[in-house]
Amino acid sequence: MNLKSTVDGILKKNNRRFVWLADKMDRTFDGLKLSLTTGSIKYRDIEKMAEILEVPPQTFFSHLTAPLSDPAGKGIRSNITPEYGELKQALKSCKELNAALRDQIKDKDQIIALLSKN
Q1: Distance CA 44, CA 85 (A)
Q2: What is the torsion angle, in degrees rounded to the nearest 10, for the CA atoms of residue 22, residue 25, residue 97 and residue 115?
Q3: Helices (DSSP H) in the chain: which residue ranges?
Q4: How many other CB atoms are there within 10 angstroms of residue 116's CB atom?
Q5: What is the pLDDT of residue 82?
Q6: What is the pLDDT along the chain (118 residues), one digit of tens a residue?
Q7: DSSP secondary structure of 47-72
Q8: Buried b (16+ CB within 10 A) or exposed e, 80-112
Q9: Cα four-point dihedral sign 53, 37, 28, 18
Q10: What are phi and psi of 103, to 5 degrees?
Q11: What is the chain's Cα-based Rg?
């Protein structure tokens, strides 16, 4: 489970929208979505998000319960298995964000064209 889907679940449970969270955090919708999707969000933003959502920060990391090393001493690499479902979801989210950004560019180009006519 990735960070974005965890946040989406908490928002759904609280009947809140992602736009509301972005506004409360003083972030843009696209910027917050991208940072959650790629996992590039800063810890202080996670703390702020946890405060706004009224959950402890470790809620966002509850899926990371694997120990750092196994008892046999093989290290953590032996415990890691690729989760393609998360990667597919991340790719889908990136494609959606890409489409949204392209639409924004088209809208801005239209606005520029309309303003240029005056």
Answers
A1: 28
A2: 80
A3: 3-13, 18-24, 29-38, 43-53, 84-117
A4: 7
A5: 59
A6: 578 888 888 898 989 998 999 899 999 988 888 888 888 888 888 889 989 998 888 888 766 555 545 555 555 444 445 567 777 888 888 888 898 899 999 999 999 999 998 6
A7: HHHHHHHTS-GGGGGTT----SS-TT
A8: eeeeeeeeebbeebeeebeeeeeeeeeeeeeee
A9: negative
A10: -65, -40
A11: 19
pLDDT of 105: 93
Q: How far apart are CA 14 and CA 59, in angstroms?
A: 15
The pLDDT value given to residue 43: 86
Joined tokens for residue 78: 């032996």
Tally of residues, the chain: 118
Q: Which two tokens stand for residue 60?
A: 């966002």
CB atoms within 10 A of CB 25: 16
Asked if 14 and 49 touch (Cβ cutoff 8 Å), the reply is no
Residue showing tokens 């679940």: 9
